[in-house]
Amino acid sequence: MKGDWLGKFRRERRVLARVRRAAWRLEQAERERVWALVAARAAGLSVRATAEAAGLSPTRVHQLTKDADMDALDVVLSELRAAGWPAPENPDGSGDEELLGRASIAERLVDEVGCIRQCADWIDHLDRESYPPAANLRPEADFPDQANVVVNPARVSAILHRIAFDVDELARARNVEDLTGARVGDAPRAERRRRLAEPDLEYAQFTRRKRLPWRSTWQGEEAWDAYQAERHRRGETDQDPYTMYSPFRRGPA
Q1: DSSP-assigned states of every residue in 165-185
Q2: Around Cβ 166, how many Cβ atoms within 10 Å?
Q3: Does the chain have fewer CB atoms within 10 Å around its N or its C terminus?
Q4: Beta strand ranges found along 91-158 (DSSP E)
Q5: CA 103 → CA 46, 92, 108, 109, 209, distances in Å?
Q6: Model pTM score
């Protein structure tokens, strides 16, 4: 009898702790929403556009922002960041740049949740549409240059395996400095390809895929130039593909 009472008491305590934690998170999320709304208005966005993005009426947006103290909100959000609350996006930056600046395990895990959601969207698209979605191998900062690739089930599977590997390491690490395989690379282009499970392009693989002849010297030179042009398109190199060293190019007589 005593054991049943004690078990019930402990269970209720855990359930109430969960409710309090959820209430705290909701309160902080509400604060961040007000901060985001005020920031949007300060940036000159219309009430209508801001309300649509927030899923609120324009009247409600006006009510939430008219008396908000931006400085006080900044202080509260700074405290939340220190506690591991995800930082908001920088309107002047890009997702790739923000990924490089992640300072906590919690922020990295939020990034991986976003990747899982993207994979789920791709799977829905593949199931619903007659054509596959596409993913850009280049980071946002390279716009308008793009290197779009088809997202098929094999790529989604490879990305999910990459996510599983990273999350497993993130779960065991104390801080981002301890990461090895899941560490965000210093080169945004290479990191973008890693996160999309895209290996660096190999010459033999490229010629087989494109069915390019390369046995003779002149055929090999054309194939090599095409290979380097594709690497340049994908963002693997900034060098002019037609002036780079080629093992097939004949020197001056």
Answers
A1: HHHHHHHH-SSGGG-STTSPP
A2: 22
A3: C
A4: 134-136, 148-150
A5: 33, 19, 8, 11, 40
A6: 0.63
CB neighbour list of residue 240: distance below 8 Å, 6 or more residues apart: 232
For residues 224 and 59, give the distance between their C-alpha atoms in angstroms, rounded to a whole number.
Answer: 62
Quick check: 94 pLDDT over 60? no
Burial class from Cβ neighbours inside 10 Å (0-12, 13-18, 19+) for residue 124 reads exposed
* Burial of 31 from C-beta contacts in 10 A (0-12 / 13-18 / 19+): middle
- Other CB atoms within 10 Å distance of the CB of residue 123: 15
- The candidate with the shortest Cα–Cα distance to 229, out of 190, 188, 201, 248, is 201
253: pLDDT confidence band, cut at 50, 70 and 90? Answer: very low
Report the Cα–Cα distance between both ends of the chain, in Å, rounded: 99
Q: In the numeric block, which tokens belong to residue 163?
A: 């996510």
Q: What is the pLDDT of residue 85?
A: 62
Contacts of residue 134, defined as CB under 8 A and 6 or more positions apart, other chains included, come to 148, 149, 150, 151
The candidate with the shortest Cα–Cα distance to 148, out of 74, 85, 198, is: 198
Name the token pair of 4. Answer: 């049943």
Gyration radius (Cα) of the chain, Å: 25
Cβ atoms 189, 235 nearer than 8 A: yes
Task: Give the C-alpha separation, 7 to 18, whole Å.
Answer: 17
Assess contact for 102 and 184: CB atoms under 8 A: yes
d(CA 103, CA 90): 15
